[in-house]
């Protein structure tokens, strides 16, 4: 059995290949979502349609202008958040932290790509050759993430 995911104009195309055993009834596959905003929008649209709400148009991703602050929440200190991320191996929180770094230093919206740039600058400032490191996301779930043991020890 195999699973591949590729981005499309309207979301993601998931392809399942292979054959089931004659005794197998179902299989479960897990994969990371390539674009969470579009995934959520399309899932919401599908849910509305399933419940009988008419939905016309296309799900798209844009920066909202003219927004107003509705709520401000003071979270735990960053040191405690990072400790929780590491203790519970919380990949979602790690990805959100990376996106926050991207937003903080490059402006909204925070993206993984902008957050990776922030991390690369930090690593370069630490004397790590960033040409030897490849990061795609903050969760560590990408098969594209690469770092040598030597560079990881330098970071730690």
Q: What's this model, at a glance?
A:
The chain has five helices and two strands; from the N terminus they run ββααααα. Helices cover 40% and strands 9% of the residues.
Question: What is the element layout, followed by pairings?
Answer:
Elements: E1 2-8, E2 11-17, H1 36-50, H2 78-88, H3 91-106, H4 112-125, H5 149-155
Helix pairs in contact: 3-4
SSE topology string: EEHHHHH
Task: Compute the average pLDDT.
Answer: 85
Largest beta-sheet details: 2 strands, antiparallel
Low-confidence parts, pLDDT < 50 over ≥5 residues? none
Instruction: Give the termini separation.
Output: 38 Å
Strand residue percentage: 5-15%
Helix content: 40-55%
By secondary-structure content and strand pairing, the structural class works out as mainly alpha
Number of strands: 2
Strand order of the largest sheet: 1-2
Give the number of helices. 5
Q: What characteristic shape results from the CA principal axes?
A: globular
Radius of gyration: 20 Å
